[in-house]
Amino acid sequence: GVLNAAAVGVHDAFEDSAAYPSARARDGQGLTKGSDGSYATSDTVSPGGTTVLGLVGVAPKDVPSQAESAFPAAAREAAGTELRGVVYLDFAPGGGGEQGKVDKAESGLPEMSVEAVRDGTTVARATTAADGSFSFKDLDPGAYTVRLPAANFAPPYEGVSWLGPALVTPAIIGAYLWIWTGFAMVLIGAGLASLPLDTLEAARVDGATEWQVFRKITVPLLAPILTVVFVTLVINVMKVFDLVYIIAPGPVQEDATVLATQMWLVSFGGGNNQGLGSALGVLLLLLVIPAMVFNVRRFRRSQS
How would residue 1 be classed by pLDDT, with cut points 50, 70 and 90? Predict the structure, then answer.
């Protein structure tokens, strides 16, 4: 599924999509929608017969320029082993016409994929012509279902929505990491520069591997610096507001909300619930206090 979506995305990025994403069938007009988004005829059709598949929901301006009238195509008869049909826009500009019947003013839908299905297996495929017509030749006797695959109605690839509901939180996390990476690198780099080299060399002389030197020597000696970085970033994460408010568009702010933004939203962003906003502010204060107390005690210990 992921590979198919990627292939469709690459294809649609360089070529126009032939799909009709807004098209749908009228209720009770002979087409049934499947769970995968496809449409299939409610009744079976046998070779030598014809079927008309009417769709709506396509604006006349969105019909391809090469589309022709479907009326002549719907009047053609099929041969003995042939199954014919037409996919058309069941809508006449200016009104009029009869639902479920091909009228002279109604156009076919070209470039539509059509399948002939028997016993759950696709036995033939075709693509509609400019007048919406299609045909399956040399079919074995029996009953067939004509299906319009879901790919006809899939919306074209429009790129990755980095600020949509699914990815807005990872996008904000990435922005936050990018902003504070420099701060962490400066402190950790200063700590690394102050490490006693003789201790590291002594560990290597005693046969310690680089991983053992890092885990047993470097990290313990950097523990005070790492604690400062960790506690500082924890406090900043708890009170982060500007990134979420600026990056997340209005419709998806609820999907990326944190305590600070939620406090603002319920108090001033349309909620007008000052009581809930105050409660969230107190909760945020209570969450930050332990980190602040820890920092103060650590500073006092370092001074003494």
Answer: very low
